[in-house]
Amino acid sequence: MVEESIQKVKRVYVRRHGRPMHQGRMDALETVFPTVQIPKDILQEDGQLAASEFFDGAAVQKLHFEIGFGNGEHLLYVMRENPHDHFIGAEPYMNGMSAFIKSLPVPTPDNIRVHADDALMVLNSLQDASVDVIYILNPDPWPKSRHHKRRIVSEANLDVYARVLKEGGLMVQTTDVDDLAEWMLTKTINSPYFDWTAEHPADWKTAPNGWMSTRYENKGKEAGRSQTYLLYRRNATAVVAKTSVPAVEMPKIRIY
Q1: Structural domains counted in the chain
Q2: Which residues contact 229 (CB under 8 A, 6 or more apart)?
Q3: Is 12 inside any structural domain?
Q4: For residue 70, is it within any domain?
Q5: 0.90 cut: is pTM over it?
Q6: How far apart are CA 88 and CA 74, in angstroms?
Q7: I want to staple 89 with a disulfide (CB 3.0 to 4.6 A). Which of 4, 11, 60, 69 is the partner?
Q8: Would you say residue 150 lies in a domain?
Q9: Checking DSSP bridges between strand 131-137 and strand 112-115, what pairing results, if any?
Q10: Are 161 and 132 in contact (CB under 8 A)?
Q11: For 164-196, what is each residue's pLDDT tens digit?
């Protein structure tokens, strides 16, 4: 039985607005966004919310969750590839949110919900073992040492991801920043809840089968940056309360 591990702290540091939006994006936020957004008043962060409650009571067999989906290219792709699954995307940057909303098919699919704020608000509200796949793709590297605590892969956040993932569920992390790749790998494989799937160097330097490279990823490759793909499976270890996990600084793990 997965035990409680709920964190109620501010965990997102991002600009909410950027360049002025085109009218088409503004119209999408006005008309489509209200039909797919998750109402904040149902997010109690108590780990009691069934996934079906996000989708008007519809049965949810497989749930994908993307944290910080940018313009939503990857999320749209996995929606097209898995039309019978359900999807939640969190993106606090409204320019990205508007791009994704504008790109949704017409009529709007009923298997997508979005959250324009901290993804942890939704994850902390979900019941244990609710999610099949979590995507953390090219997150902000926060390169300055004093800002490393802002990185989305941390000991506390990994406890949350482990709690909501089903046993055998998949977590996908990518980055083209070598230091961040080492950070994410070190943090995740030192967590007791995840097993790294890689067996050979090619496994983390080569995109998984069926992968869609986003414009951001391709731009990085054109600039000479190498993308790292880190895949983990949720193992059978039960999540324990954070207070019972000893705070031990683990050695850094290099993969280069």
Answers
A1: 1
A2: 172, 173, 174, 203, 204, 205, 206, 207, 208, 211
A3: no
A4: yes
A5: no
A6: 12
A7: 69
A8: yes
A9: unpaired
A10: no
A11: 999 999 999 999 999 999 999 999 999 999 999
